[in-house]
Amino acid sequence: MADSFYRWRPHPWHGLEVGRRPPKLVQAYIEITPFDLVKYEVDKTTGYLRVDRPQRTSSQPPVLYGFIPQTYCDHRVCKLSPGATCGDLDPLDVCVFSERPISKSEVILNVKVVGGLRVIDHGEADDKIVAVLENDYLYGAIEDIDELPPILIERLRHYFSTYKLIPDEPAALTVEATYGHEHALAVVQAAIEDYEAKFC
């Protein structure tokens, strides 16, 4: 049998490659699109998408949202997030900018890491890597988050600052800072090493 294809569907977290040239050029497995009003999350046992919850508010993600395969947020990622007490023990989240609308989830994208958001959720490091679709005609040449229009980053910060808010309850999630590609590459590399330490 030729080895150029998978005979069975690989698990998107464990069965897909990190990417062509990590930590800069990686793959993104997309769970949620900007058209979704439901929070989908990959089931860690089966690898299929599971409905996590309907969005409580009117918030919609402004970009494609998913994770980088074969990454894990544990001690090494936590060390890069001042104020966090631990990693969130999930694959590393990634937000992908694409000029053309992509309305389907459960797709694999080749992306370039350009920056990130330092997010802390209930004391856990929950970084959101910001990436652009490789070969995108509008965003493909961007190397650093500062080159993206500021309004797009503002929307991204606002979404993550508010999408878990519950009226009359204090916020448990905070967006601490935005960082550029150098720190983002360090976070991705730390998540790769955390994955290897946990699963390999």
Describe this structure in words.
The chain has 200 residues and is α+β, with helices and mostly antiparallel strands. It has a single domain, classed as Inorganic pyrophosphatase (Inorganic Pyrophosphatase, Alpha-Beta Complex). Helix content is 18%, strand content 30%. The protein contains 3 helices and 10 strands. The chain has helices at 75-79, 150-162, 181-199; strands spanning 25-32, 38-42, 49-54, 64-67, 86-87, 93-97, 108-121, 124-125, 128-133, 173-180. The strands form 2 sheets. It has a 5-stranded mixed barrel with strand order 1-4-6-9-7. Strand 2 and strand 3 (49-54) form a beta hairpin. The protein is globular and about 55 Å long. The two termini are 27 Å apart. The model has no long low-confidence stretch (mean pLDDT 93).
Secondary structure elements and pairings:
Blueprint: E1 25-32, E2 38-42, E3 49-54, E4 64-67, H1 75-79, E5 86-87, E6 93-97, E7 108-121, E8 124-125, E9 128-133, H2 150-162, E10 173-180, H3 181-199
Parallel strand pairs: 5-8, 6-9
Antiparallel strand pairs: 1-4, 1-7, 2-3, 4-6, 7-8, 7-9, 7-10
Brief overview:
The chain is an alpha+beta fold and 200 residues long. The chain has one domain (25-199): Inorganic Pyrophosphatase (Alpha-Beta Complex). The protein is built from 3 helices and 10 strands, in the order E-E-E-E-H-E-E-E-E-E-H-E-H.
